[in-house]
Amino acid sequence: MQIAIPLYPRLTALDAIGPYEVLQRVPELDVVFVGEELGEVRTENGMLGLTVDATYGSLPRPDVVVVPGGIGSREQVRGGALVDWVRAVHPTTRFTTSVCTGSLILGAAGLLTGLTATTHWGATELLARFGAHPVRHRVVAHPEQRIITAAGMSSGIDMAIRLVALLVDDVAAQAAQVVVEYDPEPPYDAGHPDEVGPEVMARIAEYRAVRS
After folding, report:
1. Is CATH 3.40.50.920 correct for 2-185?
2. Which end of the chain is more exposed for a tag (fewer CB within 10 A), N or C?
3. Distance (Å, rounded) from C-alpha 32 to C-alpha 104?
4. CA angle, 48 as apex, 47 and 49 as ends, to 5°?
5. Helices (DSSP H) in 145-190: which residue ranges?
6. Do residues 193 and 201 make contact, with C-beta atoms less than 8 angstroms apart?
7. CB 174 within 8 A of CB 168
8. Residues with catalytic annotation?
9. Domain residue spans in the chain?
């Protein structure tokens, strides 16, 4: 089965690499990084480059699409090759999925209208503009519509494990989870704005101002 992960300028690395690390562990799954042009794409802070190995035109029928998010997603939702490709390939995918603000791209392609969906906590209002109903869950699945959305960044790992279970079986999913040793024990209960105080949120705003 072919898993296509689109790359575009200023994406968040973990949104793509988290699912990749899980999915590529399973021999039945072939992960391909796809984009508008072959070659390197820089992530949102410019420090890391990822390589596009196939163009959108060369992958008309991927089995699964995993759309990452990032600052660059705001540019993508205005329309163009990525949104057009997602819209075109969805009718034949087994699942079309997103991580973080990749859900905005699914929304721009018209795939989330009337559906509950999740995204990064900072983008829920934007997601609603595309006709989705934002909810606070790590992963939201709509099997009949073949749509799965994951919340911010690290939740892409959760989604990828679920994908392995859906595409192969539960044993394969657990095997992939063990191999990547996904057994989180975070040092702080600070995974969402609801769980932290104003000092933390002020620091986040400070960091965002530097990286925007």
Report:
1. no
2. C
3. 21
4. 130
5. 155-167, 170-179
6. yes
7. no
8. 100
9. 2-185
Three-class secondary structure of residue 121 per DSSP: helix
Nearest in space to 121 (alpha carbons), one of 195, 59, 173, 55: 195
Tokens read off for 98: 């997103």
pTM here is 0.96
Closest CA to 152 of 196, 190, 203, 118: 118
**pLDDT one digit per residue (tens) for the chain, 212 residues:** 999 999 999 999 999 999 999 999 999 999 999 999 999 999 999 999 999 999 999 999 999 999 999 999 999 999 999 999 999 999 999 999 999 999 999 999 999 999 999 999 999 999 999 999 999 999 999 999 999 999 999 999 999 999 999 999 999 999 999 999 999 999 999 999 999 999 999 999 999 888 76
Task: Transcribe 122-169 into DSSP letters.
Answer: GGHHHHHTTT-EE---SEEEETTTTEEEE-STTHHHHHHHHHHHHHT-
3-class DSSP state of 189: coil
C-alpha span between 22 and 67 (Å, rounded)? 15
